[in-house]
Structure formats: C-alpha cells, structure tokens
Write a structure and sequence with these properties.
The protein is of the alpha/beta class.
Length: 383
C-alpha cells in the first residue's frame, strides 16, 4: 500500500532527509517524508517492518521528559488537565482515570500522591506493564488498539503522553481511545512539537531519533484529533528544559456532528412520505384524483403501498408528468401535465423538493387550476 498521511490521509510525499542509527550491530536508517498536502513529517513506514519496530522498542527510550534541573513535568500535566479531573470527580462517584502508555507510572503516581486520587480509580496500560505500588496495570498493545477493539477500559479521563510519535498509525490509536472514552470524557495528549526545533533544542535534546515515527506540531496534532472525533478544549506549546512540547486536552462529544440531525431528517422525510400517501388515499375515496409529478416520491409511495398501487391501476388516481408522459406507473398510463387543465378534481403535487412545488404552483396559476391544488407537505393543505 502507498504511504498515507495519518492527518489528511494524503499520499503525496517528498523525502526531506534520513536518520542513520545502529540496531543490533548493523547500520540502519529511516527516511523522513513530508506530506505535500498538510506538511506532516513521518518515517517512510514502507521501508520498515514489525520486526524492526519490535527491535527498536526493545531498547530503552532515547529520552524522557525532564527539565534541566532534574524536575519532572508529570504533575504539571495533571494540572493542565485540571478542569477535566475536577469534572470527572464531580460527575462520577467512582471515576476511572487511565494512562495509556504509562511507562514508569509517573503520571499515575502524581495523580495518587499529589492530587489524592484513590489508587482503585487509577489504571495503567502498556505493552510491557510494570507494577505500580497498588495501582492496577494491564497489558495492552497500543499499536493495535482501534475502534473495533473489544476491551473493558472505559475511562472518564485519560493521559497519553509521548506515545503517539512512537506509533505506526496514531490515527488508529486515537480512534480506539475515542471508542473507550465515556460520553464527555477527556484525553490529555502530549508529543514533541517540531515547530519549536531550534539550534539549542537540537544541540541539547535528541528529538530526531529512530524511535520517533511521526513528527508533530500542535496544529497538526489538533487536526489529527479532530479528524478522529475529538474536540480540542485546550492546546499549548512550551519548552520543558530542552524538550519542545505540544500539549492538548481533548474531549469526546464536545462538538457537533451530523449523525443526530441526519437521523432526524430521515424520520421527518419518512413522515412526509406518509403524508403524501394519506393525502392521495383520502382524496381518492370520493373522486378521481390527479397525482402531479410522477417522480421518485410518487414512484416509491406506489411501490410501498399496495392500496395506493391498486387505486392507480383502477384509475382512481391518475399520474401526470411532463417528462414521463407515455410511461406507466403500476400498469397505468402517465399523462402529460398539460392535460391537468381539462380535469375537475383535486390535484395533489407529489414532489417533495420545495422548488419543484413552487414552480408547479406558478404553472397551476397560469393554467387556471391553482385553487384545486393540494400540497400534502403543508399541514394547512391537509385539512
């Protein structure tokens, strides 16, 4: 498969350089590729395989996040997500707070020791979990987690710090975490920000290294998160010591989507279809009715309702249409619209699009039978 950008899903890249490194006594290299659409930088994943990745991660991480004075930023991470922690605690009697890719457990320990989160509310996931003094830990392959993974790992707040740059498919992981997040849950994400690479940073911090498969900026990380269904609540770029950091607080269901409105529209559309059928059946009980416009809406109505089809066959409902004149509907001939001028009964317009009905009303006024026209999609026309 061609190389694909995890952010814009583009597949046009240009090479921007190589990273040589030693692996098991042999010289290897990554080729860095720049997405020509959105500018994301990533390793050419077509040139590496699972065996190389496993061998890379059998080695200690090249660098952890520490400041010049040796202090840790992990309490600061929790503080950054403070509003999410407060909300999780207030919304749930027993909130579940997770760290995906917890490493040495620094964030989980900060939550327990500094922020007084009970250990039973904490859980860490990693591919080689280490014990954490009473905090629950579980084995989890973050590189295979996606929205189809069945896992009892629902959370109210989660951390995923300095993980996404190491994952072959960060889009897949963010989709998987979105599935595990409870409605309204938060996710703290942090990666190196390669928009902050200065000579000093490069001289002091090994940010371009073989274990980094993706090179994010806070803007690109935000775009990736949004494309995976997350809302960006807060974002920040900063330096901690010589480590450039892109930090984001994400929320599930924090923004609008089209699913609910589309479902409501489909239900409303179905109700309109029912109104068309009812209008045709009710009016044709007493006299012959003209169904004006033998298009999709009328054809589907006749196909779905046997009684409606029967009345068309019997001639109690006669279809008129300019373009389909001469064709047949339920075995009955469709007449040209011009013949409506010689009818005397009710004329029911059948197309649902408003512009079609407006044009038909103008034509009815011109031809002198507008007072006989019934619009079944207008409540006041149904009586």
């Amino acid at each position: 498969m061609p190389l694909q950008c995890p952010i814009c899903v583009g597949n046009a890249f240009h090479s921007i350089g190589r990273i040589p490194f030693m692996l098991s006594g042999r010289m290897c290299e990554h080729e860095l590729m720049g997405c020509q659409t959105c500018g994301h930088v990533m390793v050419d994943l077509q040139r590496i395989d699972e065996a190389m990745i496993a061998e890379l991660y059998a080695q200690p991480l090249d660098e952890q996040v520490w400041s010049e004075d040796g202090s840790s930023p992990y309490e600061e991470m929790v503080t950054f997500a403070g509003v999410a922690l407060d909300q999780a605690r207030s919304a749930q009697a027993l909130p579940r707070i997770a760290d995906f890719g917890y490493g040495g457990g620094e964030v989980l320990r900060a939550l327990r020791n500094r922020f007084k989160v009970p250990a039973e509310q904490l859980v860490g996931y990693d591919f080689v979990p280490a014990p954490l003094d009473g905090i629950s830990t579980q084995v989890l392959r973050l590189d295979t987690l996606d929205e189809n993974t069945e896992l009892d790992a629902r959370f109210d707040l989660a951390f995923c710090s300095h993980v996404l740059e190491h994952i072959v498919d960060p889009r897949r992981l963010l989709r998987g975490l979105h599935k595990l997040a409870r409605p309204g849950a938060y996710l703290y994400v942090e990666t190196p920000d390669h928009g902050l690479l200065t000579d000093e940073v490069l001289n002091m911090s090994n940010q371009i290294c073989p274990q980094h498969l993706h090179y994010f900026t806070v803007e690109r990380m935000g775009a990736l998160a949004r494309s995976c269904g997350w809302s960006v609540i807060r974002e920040e770029v900063s330096l901690f010591g010589f480590v450039p950091r892109a930090r984001l607080l994400l929320q599930r269901d924090g923004g609008r989507d089209a699913i609910g409105p589309t479902r409501r529209f489909l239900e409303f559309k179905e109700n309109l279809n029912v109104r068309l059928v009812q209008a045709l059946l009710r009016s044709s009980e007493r006299e012959v009715v003209a169904a004006w416009g033998a298009g999709t809406d009328l054809i589907l109505a006749v196909e779905r309702d046997p009684e409606l089809a029967s009345r068309v066959q019997e001639g109690r409902i006669v279809a008129y249409d300019r373009e389909r004149a001469g064709q047949r509907l339920a075995g009955a001939l469709i007449l040209g619209s011009e013949f409506l001028r010689s009818t005397s009964g009710p004329v029911i317009v059948t197309p649902r699009p408003a512009i079609s009905r407006l044009n038909m009303m103008k034509l009815a006024e011109k031809w002198g039978f507008a007072e006989r026209v019934i619009d079944p999609y207008r409540a006041n026309d149904l009586g």
